[in-house]
Amino acid sequence: MMRRMLTVTFLGTAGSLPTPERSPSAVLINREGELILFDCGEGTQRQMMRAKTGMMRLDYIFITHFHADHILGIPGLLETMAFQGRKEPVTIAGPVRTAEVVSLFDRLCYYSRKFPVRALELEPGDVVRMDGYEVEAVRTAHSIPSLGYRLREDSRPGRFNRARATELGVPSGPLFGRLQRGETVEVEGRVVRPEDVMGPARPGRKVVYTGDSRPTPEIEEASRGADLLIHDGSLDDDMADWAVETMHSTAGEAAELAKRAEARKLVLTHISSRYSDDVGPLLADARRHFPDVLVAEDLMKIEVKLRDGL
């Protein structure tokens, strides 16, 4: 059986200020060859080249908010795709004023670009439907209008019980396939239904990306049972007052939310430049609450596996 790939590449993991080691915010998901970008900080197209992710199969860019460190890479990325001969449209989705921002970038790239760029303004709870999965906008709490996103795959059929099908008189071959596709079959006058030979439906994968945000009940609910939660972890817990003032999260706060939501893995990103030499305080604060946590690094890749490995 073909393995279903879902890989997350952290193209940019810096806080508001980039550092020599960290670029501005950008996270790329490759799902079975289809690319989805979340935020697009300055130089994202170069980070994609460094990571060898490709970019021509990128159809959607989801923006969390319009602070410069999350959007200034859009014109460069569009230009690079134009130089590479792209013809297919690109959709830029985000909160209120997305159409205004896209119009501005459209004028910047007017002469060289030969493909349309579409704007899609989202409200919390809005869903963008894809082939086999969806991306849902989630309410977040930052200093300007903002959204987080939950990528959720469709559930998959349960396991096929070959022995039970044989016991019911179904011959091996095309009828097995029909049952696995959810069709009812008839064998020598006996009706065999999919539920007779298929186990319970199996969940798809779920990845949540908060962008810049305080912890919120909406993020917690969206992250319930998530395979991967990518959360703002800008500061250590000693900087909690500053996190509240700037509408960011501490590592400990993100980890507490991950624990309450029963997420499987937590990755902290949007790392303040004050931790350029040592992210130890962030990890220590987070691991007091949640064991499976990483601090994102530029070009780090994580493969999100199906829970049953298939």
Account of the protein in words:
The chain is an alpha/beta fold and 310 residues long. The chain folds into 2 domains: 6-156 and 202-303, Metallo-beta-lactamase, Chain A; 162-197, no CATH class. Helix content is 26%, strand content 25%. The protein has helices at 44-51, 68-71, 74-83, 98-108, 162-167, 174-180, 194-197, 217-222, 240-246, 251-261, 280-287, and strands at residues 6-12, 26-31, 34-38, 58-62, 90-94, 117-121, 127-129, 133-139, 147-153, 185-187, 190-192, 206-209, 228-232, 266-269, 293-295, 300-303. The strands form 3 sheets. It has a 7-stranded mixed β-sheet with strand order 6-5-4-3-2-1-16, with helices on one face. The chain has a 7-stranded mixed β-sheet with strand order 7-8-9-12-13-14-15. α10 (251-261) packs parallel to α11. The longest helix is centred in the first third of the chain and has 11 residues, at 98-108. The chain starts with 5 loop residues before the first strand and ends in a 7-residue tail after the last strand.
